[in-house]
Amino acid sequence: MHDNYLRHLDALKEQNQFRQLPQLIHQGRFIQREGKTMLNMSSNDYLGLANNQALRHAFLNQYQEQLPAFTSSSSRLLTGSFPIYDELESLMARAFRRESALLFNSGYHANIGILPALSDNKTLIIADKLVHASMIDGIRLAQCDFLRFRHNDYEHLEQILQKNHRSFERIIIVTESVFSMDGDCVDLTRLVALKQQFSQVMLYVDEAHAIGVYGENGLGIAEQQGCIDEIDILVGTFGKALASMGAYVVCDQVLKDYFVNKMRSLIFSTALPPFNIAWTHFLFQQLPSLKAERTHLAMLSQYLRNAIVNIFDTKMPSESCIVPYILGDNELTIKTAQHLQQQGYYCLPIRPPTVPKGTSRIRFSLTADMQLAEVDQLIACLQDLAV
Ligand SMILES: *Cc1c(COP(=O)(O)O)cnc(C)c1O
């Protein structure tokens, strides 16, 4: 009965693309795998908050006996809406100085729900070629017309807009702000200027890798580039730098009302536990005060990016704490990652189809709880590889 599945799995094994859940033991910013302890360079915990015991205690100390509930027991539209949800949404709307915010169970829920809710047969979605799988799935569910523009190529996007804008009542431009494989950034000011040439164009920006990390108050690339007001649908997640779980959109009140009425992944899923929302609320309040973490992370990132460029004389697309070392060849990338793991750095090889052919790479993900000496030791290992 399962023969067909088994054959597919065998084929994946043959292509070296068989995935397995790794067995890991976490020790702060270190990770233990098969008995070996390594610095975790593959996490999304960019601000280094996930292992911060002081924050955890400060959070728990707010409560005496009565902890927030560990389940919401229902969708928010039934009985799963607790006051802490509204408190976090108000806090976020105020921080972003926008009319409203709405919470979701995950970034995946947000991205598969928002686009179908907003789209009809007079809608065109135009997405950056490299957007996250969750947005692609949302676009598929939206069942409207769909085009892609070459990655961060705004002239290409403009051509598509010029050619199509008369045929649609609504056009939604979909992008990320920091892209997860190259660590490069969107130019939101360009996108906003483009959008403003057409009356029916909306901008959808996913800040999953940027919220907490960039901007004076940690509100992301939209804050850094000074255009929060101009992003119609500003999405982000709490599972990365914010060391929690869940996601949000910041938008006009009318769009929030529309999502509450139309968005299936919001309506038909049990809301996150109030305990979880309270933790997110607690951490979001800390965001403006985490400047030292952001500055340290930016310093480490620039240091590693420069070192890789200098050692290997290679391309460096990244402007963020996601730092790729692009080797090109698949086998060499796997071998090099294994070697670095042997040396104590838990970094992973990324190969096609996750990245384009010929750009296999090791992806270093830096976090604010790493020390300069640790990055220096990694750089020394990379130098040994080059000779
Ligand atoms: C991680 C990620 C998501 C998914 O968010 P989850 O909360 O993990 O479901 C969505 N979009 C982008 C760009 C991401 O990197």
Automatic annotation (TrEMBL):
CDD domains tied to this protein: KBL_like (cd06454)
Entry keyword annotation includes Transferase: yes
Substrates-to-products reaction catalysed: 6-carboxyhexanoyl-[ACP] + L-alanine + H(+) = (8S)-8-amino-7-oxononanoate + holo-[ACP] + CO2
Keyword list, A-Z: Acyltransferase, Biotin biosynthesis, Pyridoxal phosphate, Transferase
Record SUPFAM superfamilies: PLP-dependent transferases
Pathway: Cofactor biosynthesis; biotin biosynthesis
Recorded superkingdom: Bacteria
Modified residues (N6-(pyridoxal phosphate)lysine): K240
Known EC number: 2.3.1.47
Quaternary structure annotation from Swiss-Prot or TrEMBL: Homodimer.
Family named by the database record: Belongs to the class-II pyridoxal-phosphate-dependent aminotransferase family. BioF subfamily.
Role this protein plays: Catalyzes the decarboxylative condensation of pimeloyl-[acyl-carrier protein] and L-alanine to produce 8-amino-7-oxononanoate (AON), [acyl-carrier protein], and carbon dioxide.
Descriptive protein name: 8-amino-7-ketopelargonate synthase
